[in-house]
Amino acid sequence: MAKTEQVAEAGGNVLEVSGVTLRFGGLTSLNDVSLSMGRGEILAIIGPNGAGKTSFFNSVTGAYLPQEGTIGFLPRAGGRHELRGCKPYLVSRHGVSRTFQNIRLFGALTALENVKIAVETRQKTDAVSIMLGLPHARRAERESDRRAHEVLAFVGLEGRLNELASSLSYGEQRRLEIARALATGPELLLLDEPAAGTNPTEKRDLEDLIRRINADLGVSVLLIEHDMKLVMSVADRVVVLNFGKKIAEGTPGEVQRDPAVIEAYLGASAEEDAAAVADVVAEQAASGAAEGEVKGA
Ligand SMILES: Nc1ncnc2c1ncn2[C@@H]1O[C@H](COP(=O)(O)OP(=O)(O)OP(=O)(O)O)[C@@H](O)[C@H]1O
C-alpha cells in the first residue's frame, strides 16, 4: 500500500494549526501560519535561516506563546488538546515530544540514565516512595529500566548503555536524544535538525531510523531539516516557511519545483554571495588591491 493511502487509512489529522502568529517586539517570527498533518505522516518544515521553523516547534511544544492562533493535537484515543499556551510537561504528557537543534543531554550521566529520566517523567512515583524503596517504587524502577533498554535497542545504542553521554560520538548523541524523546511514548515526534553535524554514514542511519519510528512505532514525525537530500528522501509532504510565512506546501517533488521556494532559497544564497563579495572587497581594500581585481571576484 502506498504511504499516502496508509496515512489516509490511519485516519484524520494528528495536528491542526490555524492562524498562528508569534511576535517578538517588532519582529514577526510566525505570520498567520496554518497547516495540518495527517496521522502517520512524516512532514518536513523547511526554509532559509531565520524563517521561523524553530519558533514553530517552540510554539507547538509550549516553549513560546503565540499571540494569535490555535494549535490542536488530536490523539488516537479521540478528543483534542489545545497546545497553544500549554505547559511543556503537559504537551509531553498529551503525547508530543521533541529533540533540540543543540543537543541537550546530561553529559555526566550514562545513555541508560538519560533515557530512564525521560521514562520516569511519565511515572507517578513520588520521591519519598523511591527513597523508602516501597514496592510500587521498585516496580516503577524495573519498568523504567526495561523501557529504557527497549528504546535504546530500537535506536541501535544497546551496546553503549553504560557509556557517559558526553563520550558518545555526535551521531550517537543525536540518536540518544531521539531515544529520550521516544521514551515518553509519543504519538507525535518533533525532530529539530537531527542530521546537523552528522557524517554521511550517520545520515543514512538516521534516515532509516526516522522511517522505522514512523512505520514500526506508528509515530507521526514533524521534521525540521536543512539537509535537502534527507528531507526529499523521508518526507511524505513538505511545508516551506520564509520570513515567518508559509509560502508553499506539497510533496517533496512539488515543493522543489515551486517558483516561490526557488526564489526564497536563491534570495538567501544571493545574500550570502553578496556578503562574501563584500568580505572580499574589504579584504582587498585593506591590502591595497586594485579595484578592477575586486570586480572580477
Ligand atoms: N526568543 C526570541 N526572541 C527574539 N527573537 C526571536 C526569538 N526566537 C526566535 N526569534 C527570531 O525569530 C525569527 C525566526 O527564528 P527561528 O529560530 O524560528 O528561525 P529558523 O527558521 O529556525 O532558523 P534556523 O534555520 O537558522 O534555525 C528570527 O528572526 C529570530 O531571530
TrEMBL record:
Keyword hit for Hydrolase: no
All residue ranges annotated as the ABC transporter domain in the record: 15-268
Keyword Translocase included in the entry's annotation: no
One annotated GO molecular function: ATP binding
Record's keyword terms, sorted: ATP-binding, Nucleotide-binding, Transport
InterPro entries membership: AAA+_ATPase, ABC_AA/LPS_Transport, ABC_transporter-like_ATP-bd, ABC_transporter-like_CS, BCA_ABC_TP_C, P-loop_NTPase
Protein name per Swiss-Prot or TrEMBL: ABC transporter ATP-binding protein
Taxonomic source organism: Streptomyces cheonanensis
